[in-house]
Amino acid sequence: MDIDVAGPGPGSSRSRGRQPAQLRSLVCERSVLDRADGSAKWTQEGSSVLAAVYGPRQAKIQKEDAERAVVEVVYKPRAGLQSHEDRSIELEIRGILEGVIPLGMHPRTSIMVILQVLQEDGSVLVCALNAACAALVDAGVPMSTMYASVGCALSSQEQQLLLDPDAAEEQAAQARFCFTFPHHFDLTQPATSSEPQQPQQQEAPPAAVAPAVLGSRCVGDFSCDQLLDAMQLCRLGCERVAAFARLSLSKSLMQAVGAAAGQ
């Protein structure tokens, strides 16, 4: 499923005519790998990451924990061998996943998440995090909450925050930010309704994003005010990503139900 979060704005200096607070179009494909327990491909125009989840399954003796599951993350760059930055990204993603997976439910097991970068045009960590979340849901791994990740860049000349930067914007940026927020939604309730609502029957929002930050990665030169502004901008972006995730999951479930009914 794909979605264009907002149309191109007039007079914008960004590529593709985007406004500073506009995301690129999002695409999420689920169950794309046959041999994985769960998989997903997350694309934000020029950037794309394929995620595969294996487990929970019996952990190797040297890695097993008698009280909790072990989360393993493998981050593979688009080309070449892993760099120090890639290993740092692995630790960042693993920390966030350990915060949303109730590890005590599956002691002595392993949950492996493999992330392969397919295209790289900025905000790759964001794509990897969102792909991992979609793949975990596809695998049926228990999670205390879902999450959405969005990045932004602080331009060096205009001192302007740019949501979902591409590679050129990241390279020219004075600072780069990536924030991950937990969110939840109820698929049993319609997100919108054309019927008038009673005061006690407010329609369910597409997705509710919590104010707490689940994870963050900030690089560069920035002030405290700029950090807070970046966090607020990314939270607004996460609301749109969470709404898209709800639509994507709803469509996948409807397709699965339709396929089962046709058998």
From TrEMBL:
<comment type="similarity">
    <text>Belongs to the RNase PH family.</text>
</comment>
<feature type="compositionally biased region" description="Low complexity">
    <location>
        <begin position="11"/>
        <end position="21"/>
    </location>
</feature>
<dbReference type="GO" id="GO:0005730">
    <property type="term" value="C:nucleolus"/>
</dbReference>
<dbReference type="GO" id="GO:0006364">
    <property type="term" value="P:rRNA processing"/>
</dbReference>
<dbReference type="InterPro" id="IPR020568">
    <property type="entry name" value="Ribosomal_Su5_D2-typ_SF"/>
</dbReference>
<dbReference type="GO" id="GO:0003723">
    <property type="term" value="F:RNA binding"/>
</dbReference>
<feature type="domain" description="Exoribonuclease phosphorolytic">
    <location>
        <begin position="22"/>
        <end position="142"/>
    </location>
</feature>
<dbReference type="GO" id="GO:0034475">
    <property type="term" value="P:U4 snRNA 3'-end processing"/>
</dbReference>
<dbReference type="InterPro" id="IPR036345">
    <property type="entry name" value="ExoRNase_PH_dom2_sf"/>
</dbReference>
<dbReference type="GO" id="GO:0071028">
    <property type="term" value="P:nuclear mRNA surveillance"/>
</dbReference>
<keyword id="KW-0271">Exosome</keyword>
<dbReference type="GO" id="GO:0071051">
    <property type="term" value="P:poly(A)-dependent snoRNA 3'-end processing"/>
</dbReference>
<feature type="region of interest" description="Disordered">
    <location>
        <begin position="1"/>
        <end position="21"/>
    </location>
</feature>
<dbReference type="InterPro" id="IPR027408">
    <property type="entry name" value="PNPase/RNase_PH_dom_sf"/>
</dbReference>
<dbReference type="GO" id="GO:0016075">
    <property type="term" value="P:rRNA catabolic process"/>
</dbReference>
<dbReference type="GO" id="GO:0000176">
    <property type="term" value="C:nuclear exosome (RNase complex)"/>
</dbReference>
<dbReference type="GO" id="GO:0000177">
    <property type="term" value="C:cytoplasmic exosome (RNase complex)"/>
</dbReference>
<protein>
    <recommendedName>
        <fullName>Exoribonuclease phosphorolytic domain-containing protein</fullName>
    </recommendedName>
</protein>
<dbReference type="InterPro" id="IPR001247">
    <property type="entry name" value="ExoRNase_PH_dom1"/>
</dbReference>
<dbReference type="InterPro" id="IPR050080">
    <property type="entry name" value="RNase_PH"/>
</dbReference>
<keyword id="KW-0698">rRNA processing</keyword>
<keyword id="KW-0539">Nucleus</keyword>
<dbReference type="Pfam" id="PF01138">
    <property type="entry name" value="RNase_PH"/>
</dbReference>
